Amino acid sequence: MSTLLALARLRAMRDGTAQRITTVRHCHVAERPMVFIPLKLAGEAAAPLGAMVGTDPGHPRLLVVPQPRNRDLRFAFAGELAEVLLPYIESFQKATETVEKKGGEPYERCLDAPQIVVPNRPAVAFTGLLGRSTRFRRVDGPHPVHPSVPLLGRWLTYFADRAAQPGSSLLLAATEALGAHWATGQSGLEDANLAALMGWIDPPAGMSGRRAAEEAEDPLLWPPAGPATDPGFDNEVLGPAIRAYEDAPTARAVERITQALRTQLEPTWRLMWRAVELLRALPEGSRVRDRWEADRGSFTRFVERLAEGGPPQARRDGAVSAAARLAGLERARAGYDVQRAYDDPLVMAEYRLTGEAFAGVVTSAEPEHFEGEGRSRKLRPLITVRTEDPVRLAPGTVLGSPDRKGHGAEVVGLAGDEITLKIVKGMGRGRTPAPGAVPEPGERVCYTSLTDDFQTSAALPDPEQTPWTHGGPPEEYVPSDDDAREEWE
Amino acid sequence: MNRLDRLRGPVPPRAHDARALAALAANPGCARRALMDAAGVDKDGTARHLGFPAPFGQSQFAITRGNVFEALVKENGCAELLRLLRELLGLPIDQVGYQDVETVGSHLRASHTRTLIDRAARELDAAVFYDHPMLSLQIAGHTAYLEPDVLAFQLGGRFHIVEIKSFSVIDGQAEPEKVAAAARQAAVYVLALRALMADLGHDPERVSHDVVLVCPENFANRPTASLVDVRRQLAVLKRQLVRMTRVDRLLEGLPPELTFSLEPDDEGVPTRSARELAEALGRVPARYAPDCLSTCDMCMFCRDEARACGSTDLLGRQVRDQLGGVSGAAEALGLAEGTIVPGEGQEEIARVLRLANRLREECLR
Questions:
Q1: What are the boundaries of the region Disordered (chain A) (predicted)?
Q2: Taking a contact as any Cβ pair under 8 Å apart, which residues of chain A between 397 and 436 contact chain B?
Q3: Which of B148, B141, B147 shows the shortest CA–CA distance to B39?
Q4: Is the ipTM of this structure higher than 0.85?
Q5: Domain boundaries A354-448, corresponding CATH code
């Protein structure tokens, strides 16, 4: 939390309405996302109770488990969910592009990828658990399930894993995506309530955000966005309806539960699509495309892995894969932070506040300044920038700028509110700088010590070479009947 | 009449459980909660009467599942638990005694537990499960009775606290918040049992800091046990209990006739108006934090109060930390916008806030 964000929250609190904390959108919003709102039975780890899912705001598909403790009904639910989700995912696998890779084999990448939007973080976790409880199931042997069930499990696991990747938009949690773009006048804890958060951002006409958020806390007006249900609903509506189904599992009893769940899911369904609309309306940051490209690449690799018949994802990572995953997440986090700052002056302002970046006006420029003699004589244009920002950058620090791609500079010295830089990168190959490569006097510029330089992956041994200090080579996964027999009660 | 009894009024005091104590330790600076707990005031009833009921409901499904699981672990004299502990602790035991402390009347349970623990501490080899024990702990100058659904198990002279929870452990992992809450709660029991041991003249260190957490495994109802080291939670708890403002100090300066009484009329409705009660509560300062929303029955009332005075507490600790001790939202905004002249010691935070304000304006123009 930076002082800038704290200030935005204070303003939201005073004005009673949410405040923008970015100038652009930092996540991808697909043309045709799939909204998925799962509900689970209270007290159980991963007992699905129902879900509302679909790509058409006007036609949600409502899935219901009339007795969530019944194993067969759970698998029937998984089968139905697969019927909705798998065709959607498959629809992106056909159209691909060939990507030329420098110094490598060209490869195929899907032109677009699926995007699933769930209400909140717990829904992401539940998606992962649903994946965990279905991906090891077998289509033959004891307790056979429909082939779509284990496939669904692997996809759900993939999406939930990918959601941990900073900057990925394959599986979005609405509260997090909204919270990354707006600050409310309540605490982060309260922002986890989708209806309250949406109340601050998009209150009904004539109502303040604060008032709308207060109203949203009433579970009778705004049922929780799941996966946990309102305890009052459980005790007064759902409990009796499930008991009635137990006494007589008729179509009427199922209909009663269906209607009950519809009342809990429909308000959230509308909120979710409104959230998608709000996010879509924000102008897209210029590096969002690159990150979505990485998502498409990841999606394509997983499609290939499935096609090659690879085993389901392990229950736990081995030492090497865990280290690789962690290193990947750290790189993604660092890259995502830098990219957001480069895309968005309001995010960059946080670094200006701490002195890691500054913005100002060029007061003088010496575009044809050279350093060194003879063969080592190099073009090193000098510029001086006047800034009001509290710069904390030592001479010699390498800087980048969001204004010019490939542009690099180095701090020469600071004097009062003026800072002198020499340009070291991005001037072209000529004896004089390429046109526009050196900022001109009067131009407004921004520089930062933040750079998104390519970091090489940590050198890790092959899994078979895992040292004994890390438990030795992991056991290879062999599918067994135990997996199929695993209880899910 | 005792001051605390007057605070509570002519209604029976509320018993504390370990969860309440753990929550109290989480916000030790809250004088309101400390006093209400010390006096045994019914916080839930108070909040309801004030028109600010806490949003804590428990689903019948969760309760049923919890009960079923606990019964499963405890059935046949804790046979399943014995199997788990044998595997977990590698114990060569084939027989364990079982003592249900609940067989005596509730008023005798604490002293009965005391007698049983004393006897067990003298007989080193008797492995016994104690079901429904009752422990006591001195909190800020008063005695709190703890009724764990938990069992103390002793073998080879070591006592273990066993905590049964119905959240699942999936592939060796459980939700961190739930494990943390269970560990905090178990730490209260360890502390209470150690206090009892010390009181009886035994070595308190004979109560292990490793508690046994029993949870359902994966997606089934089959229990699995793991050891959780609660040394850190114990240290925190002890420090907080010592630091916790002493009740006598809190009572100082309060009018002697002050009461939070919920004395009911014939219909069971408190005779006092909600407004009067709210005024009385207002005499004792609360320290609201968003975390209260998941731990304290009074949370909605205190949040409303914090809203009325525009406190930055509402936005959470992370925001407060950025404001360098400026507690009012209006004050912080005034400093940022330059409409308030910074007081002594506020120059630095005012400078940062003004800069932040300028940057925001510049970027959103």
A1: 452-489
A2: none
A3: B141
A4: yes
A5: 2.40.30
